[in-house]
Input
Amino acid sequence: DHLDINIAGSKINWRWMDNFLLMPQVTRVLPSNFAMQRHELFYSRWQFPTSPAKNLFGDRYVTVGDAAGIIRAFKGKGVNTACTTGIRAAEVMMDVGISKEAFKDYYDSFSDITSDLPYGKIIRMLAGFSARCGLFTPMLQLAKEDKKFRAAFFDSVAGSRMFKEIIFETISLQLSWKVVKILIMWFFKQFSFMSWVIKPISKAITNKRT
Ligand SMILES: Cc1cc2nc3c(=O)[nH]c(=O)nc-3n(C[C@H](O)[C@H](O)[C@H](O)COP(=O)(O)OP(=O)(O)OC[C@H]3O[C@@H](n4cnc5c(N)ncnc54)[C@H](O)[C@@H]3O)c2cc1C
Output
């Protein structure tokens, strides 16, 4: 029997894993004595791939899936990509060959994904910033009110469209102003001790909104 246990986060180390394994909710679902035997476990630390691997193909070799790092930057879709890169690599081997030149076709056939990486990274950065700064709730509220913004949220999480398309079809002056207002309110909240200045300004902004 084999168990793979993953935890994810930006500052994860073996202590986090130890604490995780000792949580009552976790020990309950693991085989008895599992936590006690944890010094025999193999711990390893990996990073999720975020860009194409270096030298991912060459003469007589090609990499696929996570190893190739051909992923969607925000919604990984790792299983889909593992399958499509595997299928595409096999097709190239059968139809074109196994030389470095032949595998250029393989890499080029994922240009839609690789050229979309910077846009996915922008969305990932914005989502990370919103989560860290407590901006998710007002953004979700805005998504409830704004149909386009709601669709952008859905498409980003589902990874159903290219991130470049999502960004350029959603961005507008009107929406940008709504986001700026949320940011201004957030900024003022950070300096709540200056409420005598903030209150009249935030009142003006909120009044304009309604
Ligand atoms: C916690 C977590 C949640 C995820 N959720 C999703 C999700 O919801 N949807 C989604 O699409 N993707 C998800 N992914 C990503 C997805 O699992 C991967 O992108 C996908 O499994 C990659 O497939 P792969 O074949 O490239 O690599 P893997 O599935 O990692 O397969 C590589 C295999 O090679 C074996 N191996 C390694 N080294 C050697 C060696 N030296 N000799 C022999 N064998 C070796 C490994 O044991 C492994 O079995 C998730 C990943 C994680 C970690």
